[in-house]
Amino acid sequence: GIEYRKVGEFFDPLDRKPGPPLLTEFLEKRPREVWEALERILPKDEALRGELQFDDEWHWVARLTNPENSGVLDQATLEVSGELETFKQMMEEAAAAQQFKKAEYFKRVQNQLRTRDLLGFLGTHNVLPKYGFPTDVVELKTNHLVTIGVAKDIDLSRGLKIAISEFAPGAEVVAAKKVWRSVGVRRLPDKEWPPYGYAICEACHRFNYAPGKPPSTCACGASLEKAGHQGIFIVPENGFVAASDVRNPGESPPQRMYAGRVHFASYRLPGEQGNSPGSEVEPPMVLDRDFTVPVWKRYSRYGWLAVVNRGFGGGFGICSTCGYAEPVTFGQRRRKRSTHVNPLTGKECRGVMESRYLGHMFMTDVLEISFEVAFENQSEILSVLYALLEGASDALGISQNDIDGTFYYYSPAGESPSFVLFDSVPGGAGHTKRIFESLRPTVEAALSRMERCECGEDTSSYECLRNYRNQWAHDLLKRGAAMKVLREVLK
C-alpha cells in the first residue's frame, strides 16, 4: 500500500499517483470492510443516519467525491492545486524578470504548502470529522533553551485562533512559575509562510482574502481598494519561539497582545471561489414563526471565519532568515534590515525584516440571524450580539467559551445586519444548531439577563454583556440598547 503523510504527497505528488483518485476507485468497489466499520461505529438512530446519507446505495460518498467535483474532498483538492498553481506562477514570473531571490521565496512557499500535515488539513477542511481532533494546534517552542531546567518539560500549545494572540511576538505567558516571552515565528528550512492578502469591506464587513495580495472587490460588489483594514498576513502554522531571557513572575503582569475581532468571510467549500447560494453549504434563510416580528435564520456547517492580529496597528517585523520577530511600534520606522539575535541559535543575524500581520482562517458551524427591526448604530448591533450569546448560554447551558459571534451585512450596509453565531470548538460541536432550533427561548433568556442586571442602561457590566473576549467593545456595549431591540423582537 501507499502511505500519505503530507498534503503534497496526497494531492499533488511528483513521483506517484495522487491519493484522491485512488480513494475514489477504492470506494467505487463498495468495500465490505468499510461498510461493516461504519455500521459498527454509527449510532442506530435513523434520523442521524438519514442526515449522514448512510444507506445501501452509499449516497454519502457523493458528499465526499463525485463527478461534478462538488464533494468536500474534490474541493479540498481544488484548493491545494489552486494555491500551488498561484505561487508557481508567481515564481515563474519572478524568474522571467530575473528576480531570482523572489522566485526562490515563492519556491519555499510551495514547499511549506506541500509539507503540511495531511490528517490535520483533512480535519480542517471537513473531509475528516474535526470535533476534538487536534488540528490547527501550534506551540511556543521552549525546548531549545537548554540552560533553563524546566524548558524541556513544559508544553505550551494553543489552537491557532488563540495562539496568534497569546504567543504573538512580544507577548508573554506564565508557565512552570516562569514568564516566557515570544520573540519569533518559527521557520523551517527551505520553507516560507504563504502570504495572504486580505481586506475587510467597509460596506458589508465581510473578510475577503486571496493568495499573494488583497482582492480588489468584495463578494457584495463593493470596491476594496481603499479599505481601512487590509494588508498581508501569514498563518504561523509552525508555531512560535520563546526568548532566552525568562523571568520570574513579579509585580508587573505579563505583556499581552490582542488579536482583532473575528470576521465572517463566506459560506463555501474549500476550493470554491465565493458562495454557492441555495445549497447545503449556503442554505436559504428561513422565517422563524415563533416570532411576530419577521426573524430570518439559517444554519450551515461550512461557515468560514477569520481573525487577524495587527499588533499595535503596524503588524510585526519578521526576519525572513531566522524568524525573529517584534511588534512594529507607533512611530517606528520600518527597518528593512536590523541586527538581532536568531532566537533558536542565539547568534547574530542581519536578515531582512518583512512587515506582516498574523492571521488564521477556519471553518466551523454557524447560525445566521436577521431581525427585521431598525438598528440605530454599531453600539446597538454589538449589544444585541453579545446579549444573544449570553442568552444561549443561559437557555441551553452552553459554556460561554464554546460559542462566539460577529456580524456582517448580507448586502451593502443599510439593511438589518446579519448576526453570525459560531462554535468556538474546532470544527463545530453542534451548539449553533441547538440555538437554531431554540431561537425564541434564547432571545427570551437574553432579554431576561439584560433586565436582571443592575448596572446603568447606558453602560454594561460583566453581569450582562461584558466578558474577557469582547474587551475591545466594552465602551460600545449598552444594556439599554440591547433591551430596546430585544423587546421589539419579542413584542
Describe the model:
It is a single chain. The protein has 491 residues and is of the alpha+beta class. Helices cover 29% and strands 21% of the residues. It has helices at residues 7-11, 19-28, 32-41, 46-51, 60-64, 72-96, 100-114, 118-124, 160-166, 378-396, 431-437, 439-452, 479-490; strands at 137-141, 157-159, 172-175, 178-185, 196-200, 207-211, 230-234, 240-242, 263-267, 286-287, 295-309, 316-319, 325-327, 340-341, 348-349, 353-371, 403-408, 418-423. Strands 5, 6, 7, 9, 10, 11, 12, 13, 16, 17 and 18 form an 11-stranded mixed sheet that branches. The protein has a 5-stranded mixed sheet with strand order 2-1-8-4-3, with helices on one face. A hairpin with a 5-residue loop joins strand 12 (316-319) and strand 13 (325-327). Helix 10 (378-396) crosses helix 12 (439-452). The longest helix is centred in the N-terminal third of the chain and has 25 residues, at 72-96. The protein starts with 6 loop residues before the first helix and ends with a helix.
Question: Which key phrases capture this entry?
Answer:
five-stranded mixed beta sheet; eleven-stranded mixed beta sheet; globular; 491 residues; alpha+beta
Brief synopsis:
The chain is of the alpha+beta class and 491 residues long. The protein has helices spanning 7-11, 19-28, 32-41, 46-51, 60-64, 72-96, 100-114, 118-124, 160-166, 378-396, 431-437, 439-452, 479-490; strands at 137-141, 157-159, 172-175, 178-185, 196-200, 207-211, 230-234, 240-242, 263-267, 286-287, 295-309, 316-319, 325-327, 340-341, 348-349, 353-371, 403-408, 418-423.
